[in-house]
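Good morning C.,

I know you're traveling, so I'll keep this short. The sequence:
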Amino acid sequence: MFLRNACSLALVALAVAACDKSAVAGRANVADAAIGDGGADAADARAGWALDAAADDDTVIPPTSSDELTGRAKHLLEAIVEGNADLAQDIVFPRDAYISTHEGLDAAARWEKKVSAAFKKQIARLHKKKAMDRAQFVALELGHSVTQSTPGHHDWKKALWRVRGSRLAYVVDGKPYTISISEMVAWHGAWYVTKIR
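The tokens, ready to paste straight into the viewer:
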């Protein structure tokens, strides 16, 4: 009886996970369609599906590769090529997530300074790299050392998965290059950039 119940629960969990994955993919396609059409709400389309990307269970390590993550990584390279950080807001650790996972009254101001402003500065810096206008996306390679943040350490009030040493791979005229991503943090089943450098 116990084994049968355990198997039933496992099947339900798999079904829910499959639904979440298809919902994420659907939102990614809608966002990309809005962007591809040059709609006025392109930035909103990118950001709108990202925050609720998957289940709220942050105890599970998100996949290290997925179509959803690849799509957002392409937006990151596009932002660097264009010198416009707004094009990659869907891969930046969300403001609401930062506020809800950090202690202190000034969490919003810290997100603005440590995440958002730093991200914009790095995009502008990387945009100046030689021949970036000819860069073509290859892959986002997540780092190998996935760890869990400790609540209370650096003001985290919730344990979240973090990974360091990720790389954005691209080619220019057939020659391979990479951009180092210092830190990515998992939130609601998806990986987000907190620090490029």
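Safe travels,
E.
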